[in-house]
């Protein structure tokens, strides 16, 4: 069951690391760093991880770090991909909480203050999310205040169950702040899930902790452009469904069962939802005359159904 309360100030000043993975996004870095540091009630540290960008991104990052001792730069000598870039940044986190924010996205003003206060006041909460707004050129800062500010705390298992029944990730990513204790117990992102690693991570956190939500305030801004990973590398819905199934597979494993006896049952519900999704896409492909694509979706549905059985 979820319960809702009005926000309260944190009992003690907390610290938050903002990990900013960067690959050829140096022109966005100054804005991303400035937004992360624009908080009042938490001590913020920024960790920029440059994945061997071929442009001037590393130079931009180092220039920012020279001007502010709260900023640290980690530079890859070879390109290691986004999951390893995430994990190298997370390995450097030594604060109470952390956020993982792409260089082209922005933390909203005071978003880290709000998330840290919620987790400070609710020790059972392992991560906090909130509303995220899309933008192209300039973030709509006038939209940060949406109405009365409220906190909602969900039982982690119930939250994960609802996500599993829906069969998709309800969180974009830059709006999430995670308790570092969860990182120490769970480890980093799964390199086998380049497209759904974040979904699997939220499920892992929710298997052991409750989930908080900041309502009435925008927590982050997500930039929409042609270079977004989900619009380019992972445009195929076939890949998307397989990756989501890989994320939900966590619920069928021993770690989930140890902390949540019903996890396998919830996994089976997610499987059923994804089978239905694959079949719906197959019908669309058939109606569009694409027999090969229809066959791909039917194969995916069969794969998931066999795993489910």
Q: Give the % helix.
A: 40-55%
Number of domains: 2
CATH top level label of the largest domain: Alpha Beta
- What is the overall silhouette? globular
The low-confidence parts are: 229-235
Query: For the CA atoms, what is the radius of gyration?
Result: 20 Å
The H-and-E topology, N to C, reads as: EEHEHEHEEHEEHEHHEHHHH
| Largest beta-sheet characterization | 10 strands, mixed
- CATH superfamily annotation of the largest domain: Spore Coat Polysaccharide Biosynthesis Protein SpsA, Chain A
User: How many β strands by DSSP?
Assistant: 10
SS class = alpha/beta
* Count of alpha and pi helical runs: 11
CATH topology of the largest domain: Spore Coat Polysaccharide Biosynthesis Protein SpsA, Chain A
**Cα distance spanning the termini:** 30 Å
How large a portion of the residues is in β-strands, by DSSP E? Answer: 15-25%
Average pLDDT number: 93
Overall description:
- The chain folds into two domains: 3-223, Alpha-Beta Complex (Spore Coat Polysaccharide Biosynthesis Protein SpsA, Chain A), CATH 3.90.550.10; 237-308.
- Strands 1, 2, 3, 4, 5, 6, 7, 8, 9 and 10 form a ten-stranded mixed β-sheet that branches.
- Residues 229-235 have low confidence and may be disordered.
- The two termini are 30 Å apart.
- With 309 residues, the protein is of the alpha/beta class.
- The chain has eleven helices and ten strands.
- Strand 3 (42-50), helix 2 (57-66) and strand 4 form a beta-alpha-beta unit.
- Helix content is 42%, strand content 23%.
- The chain has helices at residues 29-37, 57-66, 82-90, 111-121, 156-166, 180-186, 197-208, 237-248, 254-259, 263-287, 291-308, and strands at residues 3-5, 14-22, 42-50, 71-75, 97-100, 106-107, 125-135, 145-154, 177-179, 210-223.
